[in-house]
Specification:
single chain, 340 residues, mainly beta, five-stranded mixed β-sheet, four-stranded antiparallel β-sheet, 26 strands, F-box_BR-signaling, KIB1-4_b-propeller
Length: 340
Protein backbone atom coordinates (compact mmCIF):
# COMPACT_ATOMS: atom_id res chain seq x y z
CA UNK A 1 0.00 0.00 0.00
CA UNK A 2 1.30 3.44 -0.92
CA UNK A 3 0.42 6.88 0.46
CA UNK A 4 3.12 8.77 -1.44
CA UNK A 5 0.70 11.37 -2.81
CA UNK A 6 -0.60 12.11 0.69
CA UNK A 7 2.94 12.36 2.02
CA UNK A 8 3.95 14.74 -0.75
CA UNK A 9 0.99 17.00 0.02
CA UNK A 10 1.99 17.10 3.69
CA UNK A 11 5.74 17.49 3.28
CA UNK A 12 6.01 19.78 0.28
CA UNK A 13 2.81 21.79 0.45
CA UNK A 14 1.81 21.42 4.14
CA UNK A 15 -1.72 20.48 3.09
CA UNK A 16 -3.58 17.95 5.22
CA UNK A 17 -6.50 16.09 3.71
CA UNK A 18 -9.38 15.23 6.00
CA UNK A 19 -9.95 12.02 4.02
CA UNK A 20 -7.06 10.06 2.51
CA UNK A 21 -7.09 7.63 -0.40
CA UNK A 22 -4.16 5.22 -0.65
CA UNK A 23 -3.19 2.98 -3.54
CA UNK A 24 -3.06 -0.79 -3.21
CA UNK A 25 -0.69 -2.66 -5.54
CA UNK A 26 0.21 -6.31 -5.96
CA UNK A 27 3.98 -6.67 -6.48
CA UNK A 28 3.37 -9.12 -9.33
CA UNK A 29 1.14 -6.68 -11.26
CA UNK A 30 2.00 -3.09 -10.39
CA UNK A 31 0.33 -1.70 -13.51
CA UNK A 32 -2.96 -2.06 -11.65
CA UNK A 33 -3.78 -0.16 -8.51
CA UNK A 34 -6.85 0.02 -6.33
CA UNK A 35 -7.87 3.00 -4.27
CA UNK A 36 -8.64 2.54 -0.58
CA UNK A 37 -10.30 5.52 1.07
CA UNK A 38 -10.01 5.98 4.82
CA UNK A 39 -12.59 7.76 6.98
CA UNK A 40 -12.12 11.41 7.76
CA UNK A 41 -9.29 12.30 10.15
CA UNK A 42 -8.11 8.72 10.80
CA UNK A 43 -5.03 8.68 8.51
CA UNK A 44 -2.16 11.07 9.09
CA UNK A 45 0.70 8.57 8.75
CA UNK A 46 0.97 4.80 8.77
CA UNK A 47 3.13 3.39 11.57
CA UNK A 48 2.90 -0.32 10.80
CA UNK A 49 1.01 -3.28 9.38
CA UNK A 50 0.48 -6.65 11.07
CA UNK A 51 -1.72 -9.65 10.32
CA UNK A 52 -3.80 -7.75 7.76
CA UNK A 53 -4.35 -4.71 10.01
CA UNK A 54 -2.81 -1.24 9.80
CA UNK A 55 -1.56 0.84 12.73
CA UNK A 56 -2.35 4.45 11.82
CA UNK A 57 -1.79 7.79 13.50
CA UNK A 58 -4.85 10.03 13.24
CA UNK A 59 -5.02 13.80 12.90
CA UNK A 60 -4.35 14.36 16.61
CA UNK A 61 -1.41 11.92 16.59
CA UNK A 62 -3.17 9.10 18.45
CA UNK A 63 -2.69 5.52 17.21
CA UNK A 64 -5.61 3.59 15.75
CA UNK A 65 -5.85 -0.02 14.55
CA UNK A 66 -7.59 -0.21 11.18
CA UNK A 67 -8.72 -3.15 9.05
CA UNK A 68 -8.35 -1.84 5.47
CA UNK A 69 -10.95 -4.32 4.18
CA UNK A 70 -13.78 -3.84 6.67
CA UNK A 71 -12.67 -0.39 7.92
CA UNK A 72 -13.11 -1.60 11.50
CA UNK A 73 -11.35 0.80 13.88
CA UNK A 74 -9.90 0.20 17.34
CA UNK A 75 -8.54 3.32 19.08
CA UNK A 76 -5.44 2.93 21.23
CA UNK A 77 -4.51 5.04 24.30
CA UNK A 78 -3.75 8.69 23.46
CA UNK A 79 -0.30 10.08 22.76
CA UNK A 80 -0.57 12.21 25.91
CA UNK A 81 -0.31 8.98 27.91
CA UNK A 82 3.44 9.08 27.21
CA UNK A 83 5.16 11.00 29.98
CA UNK A 84 7.09 13.42 27.77
CA UNK A 85 4.07 14.55 25.70
CA UNK A 86 1.80 17.29 27.03
CA UNK A 87 -1.27 18.73 25.31
CA UNK A 88 -1.23 22.51 24.90
CA UNK A 89 -3.24 24.96 22.86
CA UNK A 90 -2.85 24.07 19.18
CA UNK A 91 -0.73 20.98 19.65
CA UNK A 92 1.70 19.29 21.98
CA UNK A 93 4.83 19.98 23.95
CA UNK A 94 7.41 17.23 23.83
CA UNK A 95 10.16 18.24 26.16
CA UNK A 96 11.04 21.82 25.20
CA UNK A 97 9.68 21.50 21.64
CA UNK A 98 6.25 22.41 20.31
CA UNK A 99 4.52 20.30 17.64
CA UNK A 100 1.29 20.92 15.80
CA UNK A 101 -1.24 18.21 16.59
CA UNK A 102 -1.06 16.94 13.01
CA UNK A 103 2.74 16.74 12.93
CA UNK A 104 3.79 15.13 16.20
CA UNK A 105 3.10 11.60 14.95
CA UNK A 106 5.54 12.02 12.04
CA UNK A 107 8.42 12.44 14.48
CA UNK A 108 7.22 10.54 17.53
CA UNK A 109 6.36 7.04 16.25
CA UNK A 110 8.87 4.89 14.39
CA UNK A 111 7.16 1.47 14.13
CA UNK A 112 4.28 -0.49 15.66
CA UNK A 113 3.47 -4.21 15.45
CA UNK A 114 0.69 -6.53 16.65
CA UNK A 115 1.10 -9.90 18.33
CA UNK A 116 -1.91 -11.27 16.42
CA UNK A 117 -4.98 -10.11 14.55
CA UNK A 118 -7.55 -8.31 16.71
CA UNK A 119 -10.14 -10.29 14.74
CA UNK A 120 -8.77 -13.59 16.07
CA UNK A 121 -9.77 -13.70 19.73
CA UNK A 122 -9.25 -10.16 20.95
CA UNK A 123 -6.17 -11.04 23.02
CA UNK A 124 -3.72 -8.91 21.05
CA UNK A 125 -0.80 -6.77 22.17
CA UNK A 126 0.58 -3.71 20.38
CA UNK A 127 4.27 -2.83 20.72
CA UNK A 128 5.53 0.52 19.48
CA UNK A 129 9.02 1.95 18.94
CA UNK A 130 8.87 5.66 19.64
CA UNK A 131 10.58 8.81 20.91
CA UNK A 132 13.40 8.89 18.33
CA UNK A 133 13.66 5.08 18.55
CA UNK A 134 14.85 5.33 22.15
CA UNK A 135 11.80 3.70 23.75
CA UNK A 136 9.52 0.73 23.38
CA UNK A 137 6.06 0.66 24.93
CA UNK A 138 3.12 -1.70 24.71
CA UNK A 139 -0.59 -1.94 25.41
CA UNK A 140 -2.79 -5.02 25.69
CA UNK A 141 -6.32 -5.32 24.34
CA UNK A 142 -8.75 -3.48 26.58
CA UNK A 143 -6.11 -1.53 28.48
CA UNK A 144 -6.31 2.26 28.63
CA UNK A 145 -2.65 3.04 29.34
CA UNK A 146 0.62 2.60 27.47
CA UNK A 147 3.32 0.83 29.51
CA UNK A 148 6.93 1.80 28.86
CA UNK A 149 9.04 -1.36 28.66
CA UNK A 150 12.47 0.15 27.95
CA UNK A 151 14.35 3.38 27.37
CA UNK A 152 17.81 3.23 25.77
CA UNK A 153 20.75 5.53 26.33
CA UNK A 154 21.53 8.07 23.65
CA UNK A 155 24.27 5.85 22.17
CA UNK A 156 21.84 3.20 20.90
CA UNK A 157 18.32 3.01 19.48
CA UNK A 158 15.71 0.41 18.60
CA UNK A 159 15.47 -0.56 14.93
CA UNK A 160 12.85 -3.32 14.89
CA UNK A 161 10.51 -5.50 16.92
CA UNK A 162 8.79 -8.78 16.06
CA UNK A 163 6.54 -11.38 17.66
CA UNK A 164 8.05 -14.89 17.72
CA UNK A 165 6.89 -18.01 19.56
CA UNK A 166 4.67 -16.14 21.98
CA UNK A 167 7.14 -13.38 22.86
CA UNK A 168 8.13 -9.99 21.49
CA UNK A 169 11.76 -9.56 20.43
CA UNK A 170 13.56 -6.27 19.78
CA UNK A 171 16.84 -5.42 18.06
CA UNK A 172 18.93 -2.27 18.41
CA UNK A 173 21.35 -0.42 16.16
CA UNK A 174 24.27 -1.96 18.08
CA UNK A 175 22.85 -5.44 17.55
CA UNK A 176 21.40 -6.15 20.99
CA UNK A 177 18.51 -8.62 20.74
CA UNK A 178 16.05 -8.70 23.65
CA UNK A 179 13.28 -11.18 24.44
CA UNK A 180 10.36 -9.70 26.37
CA UNK A 181 7.96 -11.14 28.93
CA UNK A 182 5.08 -8.69 29.19
CA UNK A 183 3.04 -10.78 31.63
CA UNK A 184 5.24 -10.56 34.73
CA UNK A 185 3.60 -9.73 38.05
CA UNK A 186 6.05 -6.86 38.54
CA UNK A 187 5.83 -5.47 35.03
CA UNK A 188 7.68 -6.29 31.80
CA UNK A 189 11.00 -8.11 32.00
CA UNK A 190 13.62 -8.77 29.37
CA UNK A 191 16.22 -11.39 28.57
CA UNK A 192 19.21 -10.24 26.52
CA UNK A 193 19.62 -12.90 23.84
CA UNK A 194 22.45 -11.16 21.98
CA UNK A 195 24.57 -8.48 23.64
CA UNK A 196 25.23 -5.11 22.07
CA UNK A 197 28.55 -4.64 20.33
CA UNK A 198 30.46 -1.54 19.22
CA UNK A 199 29.21 -0.30 15.89
CA UNK A 200 31.28 -1.55 12.93
CA UNK A 201 33.21 0.83 10.76
CA UNK A 202 30.66 0.44 7.99
CA UNK A 203 27.24 1.96 8.54
CA UNK A 204 24.29 -0.24 9.51
CA UNK A 205 21.27 0.95 7.55
CA UNK A 206 18.64 -1.41 8.94
CA UNK A 207 18.12 -4.50 11.06
CA UNK A 208 14.95 -6.57 10.77
CA UNK A 209 13.79 -9.52 12.86
CA UNK A 210 11.84 -12.23 11.01
CA UNK A 211 9.98 -15.21 12.48
CA UNK A 212 10.14 -18.12 10.01
CA UNK A 213 7.63 -20.95 9.40
CA UNK A 214 10.35 -23.47 10.38
CA UNK A 215 10.77 -21.90 13.82
CA UNK A 216 13.95 -19.83 13.47
CA UNK A 217 14.30 -16.15 14.28
CA UNK A 218 16.32 -14.41 11.59
CA UNK A 219 18.00 -11.03 11.62
CA UNK A 220 18.39 -9.31 8.25
CA UNK A 221 20.93 -6.51 8.06
CA UNK A 222 21.23 -3.88 5.36
CA UNK A 223 24.53 -2.08 5.05
CA UNK A 224 26.58 -0.20 2.44
CA UNK A 225 28.67 -2.36 0.14
CA UNK A 226 30.63 -0.57 -2.57
CA UNK A 227 31.37 -3.86 -4.33
CA UNK A 228 27.64 -4.55 -4.86
CA UNK A 229 25.86 -3.18 -7.98
CA UNK A 230 23.57 -0.83 -6.02
CA UNK A 231 25.93 -0.20 -3.13
CA UNK A 232 23.78 -2.07 -0.57
CA UNK A 233 24.13 -5.59 0.80
CA UNK A 234 21.57 -7.62 2.71
CA UNK A 235 22.94 -10.31 4.99
CA UNK A 236 20.81 -12.92 6.80
CA UNK A 237 21.71 -14.21 10.24
CA UNK A 238 20.09 -16.71 12.60
CA UNK A 239 19.52 -15.44 16.13
CA UNK A 240 20.95 -18.02 18.56
CA UNK A 241 21.68 -17.92 22.29
CA UNK A 242 25.38 -17.67 21.44
CA UNK A 243 24.89 -14.75 19.08
CA UNK A 244 23.87 -14.10 15.48
CA UNK A 245 25.37 -16.51 12.98
CA UNK A 246 25.48 -16.08 9.22
CA UNK A 247 23.26 -18.60 7.46
CA UNK A 248 23.67 -20.16 4.04
CA UNK A 249 22.53 -17.96 1.19
CA UNK A 250 19.87 -20.50 0.16
CA UNK A 251 18.26 -20.46 3.61
CA UNK A 252 15.02 -19.03 2.24
CA UNK A 253 14.47 -21.85 -0.24
CA UNK A 254 11.05 -21.28 -1.80
CA UNK A 255 10.22 -18.47 0.62
CA UNK A 256 10.35 -14.68 0.26
CA UNK A 257 10.84 -12.02 2.91
CA UNK A 258 8.68 -8.92 3.26
CA UNK A 259 10.54 -6.26 5.25
CA UNK A 260 9.92 -2.63 6.06
CA UNK A 261 7.48 -0.73 8.21
CA UNK A 262 5.36 -3.89 8.44
CA UNK A 263 5.67 -6.78 10.87
CA UNK A 264 8.38 -8.70 8.97
CA UNK A 265 7.07 -11.81 7.20
CA UNK A 266 8.60 -14.95 5.69
CA UNK A 267 6.08 -16.43 3.25
CA UNK A 268 6.12 -19.53 1.03
CA UNK A 269 5.83 -18.50 -2.61
CA UNK A 270 3.97 -21.65 -3.69
CA UNK A 271 0.58 -20.09 -3.00
CA UNK A 272 1.59 -16.56 -3.99
CA UNK A 273 1.54 -16.36 -7.80
CA UNK A 274 4.08 -13.92 -9.18
CA UNK A 275 6.08 -13.62 -5.94
CA UNK A 276 9.70 -14.56 -6.51
CA UNK A 277 11.40 -17.09 -4.30
CA UNK A 278 14.63 -16.27 -2.49
CA UNK A 279 13.97 -12.53 -2.73
CA UNK A 280 13.53 -9.74 -0.24
CA UNK A 281 10.54 -7.47 -0.80
CA UNK A 282 11.69 -4.30 0.89
CA UNK A 283 9.97 -1.02 1.67
CA UNK A 284 12.01 1.70 3.35
CA UNK A 285 11.35 1.93 7.11
CA UNK A 286 12.09 4.90 9.36
CA UNK A 287 15.86 5.43 9.30
CA UNK A 288 17.29 8.57 10.86
CA UNK A 289 20.68 7.37 12.11
CA UNK A 290 22.10 7.13 8.56
CA UNK A 291 20.25 10.04 7.02
CA UNK A 292 23.28 11.65 5.32
CA UNK A 293 24.17 8.36 3.65
CA UNK A 294 20.62 7.78 2.43
CA UNK A 295 20.60 11.08 0.56
CA UNK A 296 23.41 9.72 -1.61
CA UNK A 297 21.44 6.62 -2.65
CA UNK A 298 19.11 6.68 -5.62
CA UNK A 299 18.03 3.09 -4.93
CA UNK A 300 16.60 3.83 -1.49
CA UNK A 301 12.98 4.65 -0.78
CA UNK A 302 9.74 3.20 -2.06
CA UNK A 303 9.05 -0.52 -2.43
CA UNK A 304 11.62 -2.73 -4.15
CA UNK A 305 12.78 -6.30 -4.51
CA UNK A 306 16.29 -7.36 -3.63
CA UNK A 307 17.51 -10.48 -5.44
CA UNK A 308 19.84 -12.32 -3.05
CA UNK A 309 21.62 -14.08 -5.91
CA UNK A 310 22.08 -11.11 -8.23
CA UNK A 311 22.48 -8.69 -5.29
CA UNK A 312 20.42 -6.02 -6.99
CA UNK A 313 17.42 -3.84 -6.25
CA UNK A 314 14.49 -3.58 -8.64
CA UNK A 315 11.67 -1.08 -8.35
CA UNK A 316 8.35 -2.75 -7.59
CA UNK A 317 5.80 -0.05 -6.82
CA UNK A 318 5.81 3.43 -8.39
CA UNK A 319 6.45 6.21 -5.93
CA UNK A 320 7.09 9.93 -5.92
CA UNK A 321 10.80 10.00 -6.73
CA UNK A 322 11.90 13.37 -5.43
CA UNK A 323 14.74 14.27 -3.12
CA UNK A 324 12.47 16.75 -1.40
CA UNK A 325 10.71 13.85 0.31
CA UNK A 326 12.64 12.64 3.31
CA UNK A 327 12.48 8.88 2.80
CA UNK A 328 14.39 7.94 5.93
CA UNK A 329 12.04 9.84 8.19
CA UNK A 330 8.71 9.46 6.39
CA UNK A 331 8.10 6.08 4.72
CA UNK A 332 5.50 6.08 1.96
CA UNK A 333 4.81 2.34 1.49
CA UNK A 334 4.04 -0.71 3.63
CA UNK A 335 3.48 -4.37 2.83
CA UNK A 336 0.11 -5.72 3.90
CA UNK A 337 0.46 -9.48 4.18
CA UNK A 338 -2.10 -12.17 4.92
CA UNK A 339 -3.19 -12.84 8.49
CA UNK A 340 -0.27 -15.01 9.68
Amino acid sequence: MSWGNHLEEMQLHRRYSSAVTCKLYHPADVDKSYGVSFPKSCFLVCCGASHGWLILANDISNLVLCNPVTMAMIPLPPVTDFTDVKAVCGGYHRGTYFYEAKRLAIWFYQKAVLSCSPSKDGAYVVMVIHNDSACISFVKAGQSKWQVASTLSCSDRYLDCAYHKGRFYTVTLKGMVEKWNLDGANGPTREVVVIARPLPVECILARHLVSTPWGDLLQVRAKPAVEYPDGIAFKIYKVDPDGCNVVQENVLGDHALFLGLNHSACLHTKNLPGIRRHCIYFSAPVITHAFDFLLQLRVWGGARTYDLERRRFERVVPFSDTKKLVYGICPSEVWITQNL
